[in-house]
Design brief:
Blueprint lengths: L8 H13 L2 H4 L1 H10 L6 H16 L3 H20 L10 H12 L6 E2 L6 E4 L2 E4 L6 E2 L7 H20 L8 H6 L18 H14 L6 H13 L4 H4 L12 E3 L5 E6 L5 E5 L2 H13 L26 H21 L3 H7 L5 H11 L5 H8 L4 H8 L2 H9 L6
Parallel strand pairs: 1-4
Antiparallel strand pairs: 2-3, 5-6, 6-7
Helix pairs in contact: 1-4, 4-5, 5-7, 9-10, 9-13, 10-12, 10-13, 10-15, 13-14, 16-17
Amino acid sequence: MLVALVDTLKQLRYQIAHLEDDTLQSEYPELASFIQQVGLTVAESKQELVFLYQFLYVYGRKSEATYNRFRNELERFYLWSWLVAEKSVFELKREDIEAYVDFMVEPDKRWTMTSVQWRYKDEQGIRRLNENWRPFMLKESIASQQTLAAMFTALNVFYKFAILEEKTFANFVPVVKKNSPYLVVQSQIKIPDTLSDIQWEYVFGVTRDKCEQVPDLERNLFTLACLKGLYLRISELSERPQWSPVMSHFWQDNDGFWFLRIMGKGNKLRDVTLSEDFVTYLKRYRLYRGLPALPRVDEAEPLVHKIRGQGGMTVRQIRRLVQQSFDLAKQSLLDDGFTDDAEQLESATAHWLRHTGATHDAQTRPLKHLSEDLGHAKIATTDQIYIQTNIKERAKSGLKRKV
C-alpha cells in the first residue's frame, strides 16, 4: 500500500518530534508500519525521512505554497526510490534519476488518482491515512514541461542541500536535466498567457453588471481589480501564516499618491502604486462593506473578506471567486456569439490577470516602474516576459524579404 510520507506544514514539527522520539506509532500508525516495512529493504529509510522533514522545514516555512510544492515532488521521489528502485535516495546514480524521470512521464496506474485527496485526518487524536491518496494525478497526456521543470528544480535543490549537510557528495540532477529527451528548449519568443481585450471586458464587465442583482459579487470585482490592476499574485492577496493583508496596508504619501504594501515571494515587502481607476473600485468595495470610502492607518479589516467567518481568504477561496467570474463571462461570451473567446477562457487561470495587466501597461509605463510594481528582483525579468517590441520590429523588418 502507498503511504503519504509527509502531512501538512502545521503537522510537520510533530512528525519530526515523533520520529526523533521513536513515538510515530502513537499518532501515525500506518506511516510507522510502512517505514518499518521499507526498512527491510532500505535500512536507512527512517533517517532519510528525518532528513526530508528537516529539508522541508528549512525550505517550506517561508511559504506554505513552497512547502506543498517541494513536499509533493520529493514525497513521490522518495517512494519511487524505496519501492521501485529499492535504494536509498543517496545511493541513486545518474541512470536511476533517468529511470525516475521516465516514471514521472508515465507513472504506474496504481500510483495515480483522479481527484485531489487529503493525506491524513484526525480520528480520536490519531492521524489516519486516507487509503485513496496517491502520489500522482491521472492525466491523459505525458507530464507537462512545467511539471518536469518543477520536478528537476525540487530534486536539484534537495541534493544541493544534502551535499551541504554532507549526506551525499554527488548531484546527478543537472546532467540528467540537460540531456533529458522530454524537455523542450524554449523559443526566443515567449509570450505570457493573457486574456484578450474582449475576454477581460466580459470578465470584469459582466461581474460589475451583475453586482446590482448579487451585491456579494462586489468582492469578486475588487479581487479582479487587484489581480489585474495591481499585478498581484493570488498568494499576495490571501491570508498566510506570516502575513495577513489588511486595509491599513493601503497608505497615502504626502503628495497624495496611494500605495498598497504587499508581501511577495521570499517574504519581500514592496509597495505597489495605485491608479486613479483602481482607487475608484477600492472606494466602491469599501462602501459595499460598510466602511469609509478610503482606508485609515489603523484598520485591521481583511483586504478580501469572508462572507461567513472571520479573517481573510485563502488562496483556494480567492481562486474560486476568480473562477466564478470567468464562468459568468464565458456564458455571456457564448450567448453573444463569441465562441472562440469563450472556449479559450476555459484554460485561463487567475495568474493570467497579473500577466494581462502587466502586458497591457508595458506599452505605456517605464520598464523600471513596471518591474518594481510587479516585484521582480531583476528588471531583465520584466523585459524578457512583457516587452515584445523587439520581436514585433523583427517581424516587420522581415515581412518584405524575398524568397
